[in-house]
Amino acid sequence: MFGLVLLVGIPVLFVTGALSYAAYNPDLGPLNDQTPDKGWLGFYLFDWPTRPAWLYRLVQGVHVTLGVVLVPVLLAKLWSVIPKLFEWPPARSAAHALERLSLLMLVGGAVFEFATGILNIQLHYVFPGSFYTLHFYGAWVFIAAFAVHVALRLGRMVRALGSRSLLGELRTGLADTRPEPPDADGLVAVAPAPPTIARRGALALVGAGSLALFVVTAGQSIGGRLRATALLAPHNRAPADGPNGFQVNKTAAAVGITAAMVGPDWRLELHGAGPVRSFTREDLLAMAQHAARLPIACVEGWSTGDQHWSGLRLADLAALAGLPDAASVLVDSVQPPGPYASVVLRGNQIRDPRSLLALHVNGVDLALDHGYPARVIVPANPGVNNTKWVHRLTFRA
After folding, report:
1. What gap in Å lies between CA 366 and CA 373, rounded to an integer?
2. Which of 95, 167, 322, 335 has a CA positioned 20 to 30 A from the CA of residue 304?
3. Which Gene3D superfamilies does this entry report, sorted A to Z (predicted)?
């Protein structure tokens, strides 16, 4: 039963993770791509859409929430096969050695992927190197081993599931629980001790653990009243009241933004087909303003509710730069160089009328932590690609 749950859940985890990677538009260049030299592993990449606006929120919310919920199931599955993990000798033949190697990749890959993912969403990532690089390549190693393992063991799992009734097991209490008969693989103990928990108890224990993790995690993605129940989520609650009182990943202080960088001398530079143009914030406020209601969704799985943003359409700025049909735009922040200080957006993101260089949120000026004096907000875009503290837009043909 644990294997059946993982057989369904792990492919969903992999697909949503792969879609999350595609949402970063990594094939636009190294600024967006934290996993260089992906080669043919990026065969499926496509132009990430802007509709529906909640698409990335859904994809990443499912990925993170499901990953957390499956932890008890994974641990129970590993517990059930512990004798196989430590059998001796480790290899009895070449074929057995290959099987053991696939098992090492499967178990090691599972532990690595779940551990790195959970540490990242808790903002305590401690592994050397980029999370994106390690998690991306680790996912491909894991899913390859998973596919091999399923091919080798699917028939056996089907026979095991058909060997007894699930409802019958759920009706069987501890007093009537009997050990499994001996098996060819040596998973069953030779002389088992009396049972201390029924099979239905094991299923209930793991299921209750998964349900509890869902309750204390899912609210960060679902929002509304459930946000208050997301006790294990770092961004489960808004940091303050008021129009700017919604979640933020990195504060201005955390990335080195000072008052001088965004003070009266701040300018927005517009690069394109003609000469470079420069605008003060007052110049931008004097232009036609547009509005959109959009959430922010982040790779850690948290998301805000829809916020009311207003500012200038990226499409109008592209026209001002002399490239109304721009294929992409390079967005540069005033923050010191580092991951996502600059990103590239696609042409379809520029042309969406809800894609803004936002100057206000919920009717007031952006707070410094939310990107004052100007930030990008694009529908269905990963949060870190909605660059804050923007000072240069370079539209490209």
Report:
1. 7
2. 335
3. Oxidoreductase, molybdopterin-binding domain (3.90.420.10)
CATH number belonging to the domain at 252-396, selected among 3.90.1310.10, 1.50.10.10, 3.90.1300.10, 3.90.420.10: 3.90.420.10
Q: SS3 letters for 311-331?
A: EEEHHHHHHHCCCCCCCEEEE
What is the C-alpha radius of gyration for the chain, rounded to an integer number of angstroms?
25
Amino acid at 99: E
Burial label, 125 (beta-carbon count in 10 A; 0-12, 13-18, 19+): middle
289 close to 325: Cβ distance less than 8 angstroms: no
Q: What is the pLDDT along the chain (397 residues), one digit of tens a residue?
A: 999 999 999 999 999 999 999 999 998 988 888 787 788 999 999 999 999 999 999 999 999 999 999 999 999 999 888 877 787 888 888 877 887 888 889 999 999 999 999 998 887 767 777 888 899 999 999 999 999 999 988 998 898 889 888 999 999 999 999 888 887 777 777 888 899 999 999 999 999 999 999 999 999 998 888 888 888 888 766 667 899 999 888 899 999 999 899 999 999 999 999 899 999 999 999 999 999 999 999 999 999 999 999 999 999 999 999 999 999 999 999 999 888 899 999 999 999 999 999 999 999 999 999 999 999 999 999 999 999 999 999 999 9
Per-residue exposure over 242-276, b if at least 16 CB sit within 10 Å of its own CB, e if not: ebbebbbbeebeebebeeebbeeebebebbbeeee
* Residue ranges per structural domain of the chain: 2-229, 252-396
Quote the CA–CA distance of 216 and 204 in Å, as a whole number. Answer: 18
Verify cis geometry, omega within 30 degrees of 0, for the bond prior to 195: no
**Tokens found for residue 100:** 């053991």
Cα torsion for 192, 198, 199, 201, to the nearest 10°? -140
How far apart (Å, rounded) are the C-alpha atoms in residues 38 and 88? 37
The span from the CA of 56 to the CA of 16, in Å, is 10
Cα separation, 141 vs 39, in Å, equals 14
pTM to 2 decimals? 0.93
